[in-house]
Amino acid sequence: MSDPAPADPKYRREPRVAAVPCPLCGGRDARPHWVGRDRLTGVPGTFSVVSCAACGFLYLSPRPIPEDLHLCYPADYHAYHPAPAEGHKLLRGGGLRADAHRLVLANELGYPAMRPERAGIAVRLLAALRAPRVRKLVFPMRGKGRMLDVGCSTGARMASCAQLGWRVSGIENSPEAAAEARRGGAEVFVGDLLDANYPPRGFELVTCFHVLEHVLDPRRAMRTMIDWLSDEGTLVVELPNAAGLGARTFGTHWFLLDVPRHLHHFTPRTLARLVEESGAR
Questions:
Q1: β-strands 264-265, 58-60 pairing
Q2: Which of 54, 90, 180, 188 is found 20 to 30 A from 251 (Cα to Cα)?
Q3: pLDDT tens-place string over residues 139-196
Q4: Of 270 and 114, which is predicted with more confidence?
């Protein structure tokens, strides 16, 4: 008889949990804020998000112990099967729209090598219409340095940046996702970001999209990423906003609550505190 498929919810185990102090200030006094369950992949159990009485930070406690964190990421977890990065799609193929995207990259975002051969009135008009979308999807800096994508998954974002001239590297916990990224030619460290042995000040751009809410120690993670930045480097962090309209409206049914994988729930205020106390230059 074959083993049950790991994606089958019937065979998922409830992770063991333990109470933790506030990851932001170390306080041990907290009050309940949200109680929810895994609505995305069906990890068994009920999980509590608490609010620190001292600083207001929202975090999961009790939370899965480190040895059981893998139970929170079954094989069908969506991040292991991402769609291609939108930035990569901007330059796909040819035609009027691709030329318009290239014109925006050249004129507004510091990529003169992307200037299209054809830049007639139709291309310029479409570029004006498409510029807000291109600006949203592409980093406004010249792609001539080293870029590190923390939590690179299968490498779609790295592929986008490589097209723009960046020398790309990535960090990924999932060996399967990392193998896919490597097939695209990327250099990928497999494991926890705190174990990655990159030199200080080695990157002009470090990106961290929807990763910081998953790590056990966000303080060490933030300090590490800041240390990797060159003197003129930029750190790009994207997180769910626990003070946003979605969280306030839907509460325990908020899609981005995503317990038990999201161990921390940042607001603009608590993220700013973390960055400031982590030595941002």
A1: antiparallel
A2: 54
A3: 766 656 899 999 998 888 888 788 888 899 999 988 888 888 888 788 999 999 999 9
A4: 270
